Amino acid sequence: MYIAMNRFKVRPDSEDAFRQRWLEREVLLKTVPGFVSFQFLQGPAKEDHVLYASHTVWESYEAFVGWTQSEQFRAAHAGAGAGAGQGKVLTVGPPVFEGFKVLQNIEI
Q: Which of 46, 48, 45, 54 has the alpha carbon at shortest distance from 8?
C-alpha cells in the first residue's frame, strides 16, 4: 500500500475558490487501476494561509506511478496552479508532495 499527499497553503482570500475547484472537479481517480481511496482535507488556519491536503491511497507504489503517467493524470492536472479559470494564484507557493510506503495498516 502507498499513500500520496499534497499539502497546499491556501491564501485566506482564495479559500472559497480553492475549495470549489476541488469539490466540483471531475474525479478521474476511480478509473485508474490500483486506486483505493481519496480524501480532501482542511487543516489549521495560520495568519497568511489555511492548510489543505489531498490524500490518496494506492494498492502499491507502482499503481501510484501508473497514475502519474496516465492520460487521466494529465487531464486532472491541466491548468493546475491557476485559480478557477481566473488566472489568480490561490496558494502561497507550490504544493508540497509527500509519499509514504505503508508499513502497518490496521482496519476495523
A: 54
HEC readout, 5-59: EEEEEECHHHHHHHHHHHHCCCCCHHHCCCEEEEEEEEEEECCCCEEEEEEEEEC
Q: What is the CATH number of the domain that holds 40?
A: 3.30.70.100
Query: Is residue 12 a part of any domain in this protein?
Result: yes
Dist CA 93 CA 10 (whole Å) = 9
Across the 108 residues of the chain, what is the mean pLDDT of every consecutive 10-residue run? 97 94 88 95 96 97 95 79 62 94 95
Integer Cα distance of 76 and 27 in angstroms: 8
The pLDDT value recorded for residue 25 is 83
User: Strand order of the sheet with strand 2-10?
Assistant: 35-45, 50-58, 2-10, 96-101
